[in-house]
Write a structure and sequence with these properties.
This protein is mostly helical and about 190 residues long. The chain has 9 helices and no strands. The protein has one domain: Tetracycline Repressor, domain 2. This is Transcriptional regulator.
Length: about 190
């Protein structure tokens, strides 16, 4: 794919993020996305045939970026504790982000598109594997305790998923999140 094509796809996805975060998944139309990114229908349809495709591309980009960041940090021998702290900061920032409605929209998408269950199972698996890689690295360097990597990684992924989803509809305070992060750190460090 050409650089221009990648730039255009990125523009469409970037424009869609705030729409999905503000309005949810089901009410957004291709026309909304065209209006948001300032492109014609033909221009958008050249890259994506539906809001579903755009939503999946947005989710894929998110997990791909996370995987890339952690793997690069491990390859550069960044201390595991620093990588883990950055991961926790990233997740905490997401909870309080202006785009936090996106997490609720993601669950809405999962309910509206039940055939995507395997896709969501795979996303969870990738996330658990990513944390697992980080935890193994941290244990190898002696920075992390000895613990059941799979169980703790799974716990953390589901914890953040629930908290991020809840943050769009419930009052979640920074103090509450910090208390939970302290508990998570005690399991790992």
């Amino acid at each position: 794919m050409s650089n221009k094509s990648n730039t255009t796809k990125k523009k469409i996805i970037d424009s869609s993020v705030q729409l999905f975060a503000d309005k949810g998944y089901q009410v957004i139309t291709m026309k909304d996305i065209c209006d948001s990114c300032g492109m014609s229908r033909g221009g958008v349809y050249r890259y994506f045939s539906s809001t579903k495709e755009i939503f999946i591309a947005m989710l894929d980009r998110d997990i791909d970026d996370d995987i890339k960041a952690v793997k690069q940090a491990i390859e550069k021998k960044v201390p595991a504790k620093v990588i883990f702290d950055n991961y926790l900061d990233h997740e905490k920032n997401a909870i309080f982000s202006d785009n936090r409605g996106l997490f609720f929209a993601t669950h809405e998408f999962a309910f509206a598109e039940p055939e995507q269950r395997a896709y969501f199972d795979k996303r969870i698996e990738l996330s658990v594997d990513l944390l697992g890689d980080l935890f193994r690295y941290g244990q190898e360097t002696g920075e992390f305790k000895d613990f059941d990597i799979s169980a703790v990684a799974t716990h953390i992924i589901y914890f953040f998923d629930g908290l991020k989803t809840s943050s769009s509809v419930l009052t979640v305070t920074e103090e509450m999140v910090d208390q939970q992060l302290k508990i998570i750190k005690e399991m790992v460090l």
